[in-house]
Amino acid sequence: MADFPDRKSRRASAEEKAKELEIIKGIVCGKNVVITGGASGLGYSFVNHFLEHGAKKIAIIDVDTTAGEQAVKAVTKTYGAEKIIFINADTSNYSQIHDAFTQLTTSMDSIDIVVNNAGILDERRWEREIAINISGMLFVANIALQFMGKDQGYNGGILVNIGQHFDFKTTAQLPVYTATKSAMIELSKSLGAPYHYERTGVRVLALCPGLTETALTINSPNRLSSRIMKADFVKNLENLSIQTPYIVAKGLMTILKCGESGSIWVIDNGNTPYEVVIPHYRSLKRSYKNNFIPTLSHPAIKGRPMKELRIYDNNIRSGLTSCA
Ligand SMILES: NC(=O)c1ccc[n+]([C@@H]2O[C@H](COP(=O)([O-])OP(=O)(O)OC[C@H]3O[C@@H](n4cnc5c(N)ncnc54)[C@H](O)[C@@H]3O)[C@@H](O)[C@H]2O)c1
Known about the structure:
This protein has 324 residues and is of the alpha/beta class. 47% of the residues lie in helices and 13% in strands.
């Protein structure tokens, strides 16, 4: 008797799983998917999961030709040569990515899902980090909308931007990388807003994995800006749990099923994906300290020309100057 409810709930969860799988297949099956940075790490795991769920064709866009060719070989062996395309292109180069998407329109009848995944961690070459993790991801997002948007004559689709979930207590040694990955959250919220979605029909999601076992993580201690930071970072890493790319790719399939446009999803410690809701700026807790006294010189009136709107009295020093 005691284990009866358990068995019942196990049966229910198996049914639920089967139902979820069916819905995911409905979203992925027969679809063409583009994955940047898909030759290795998380990207390669995404490739395999999309194919497992019946994707029609996958295009990997990556700068690493050797890894790209290996990926094509492995996928061909399991799923057949018609399932995979590799294009060598650098996401930080707008025209290379635009050319890659143009090339894909000849081998794919439509582009349905784009995973904006290519990224690096290298605090010593932070300009390159910004060029790939911010500019490159902006280029891919922009081009993905051009090649999927209903307003451009296409069918709409899904764009997934890869951010990262951080605990600043343990990753303070990665200031530039952290900034670049946080940018993906705001980009996704903005491009995923109804203003864009209603026009493009492209659902934009942000996926923020926690620490995951890939080359990026393994090499990260050697990509920091000082030896002291490396020592501190390695100490922190030893105390963190690390998940596999498989778990993240599996979670992505669930997110595709239930993520609304503009939503932000976290997968960390190998757990089920969960959505995070960033508070509206008006609801953020305000702290004025003692040296900052806001006064409303004019009540805010709707429709008043911008130049007439002055919230704070000019005679009072602003927050920044008052700190000096
Ligand atoms: N590993 C983690 O812990 C972790 C956690 C959260 C988010 N991420 C993010 O996930 C994404 C993938 O990271 P990963 O851990 O799989 O790294 P990885 O280094 O294992 O793989 C990255 C892939 O991207 C490719 N790439 C790099 N720069 C490129 C460029 N300019 N153009 C095209 N391809 C390029 C690489 O050749 C490689 O194949 C990155 O955006 C990363 O920031 C990683």
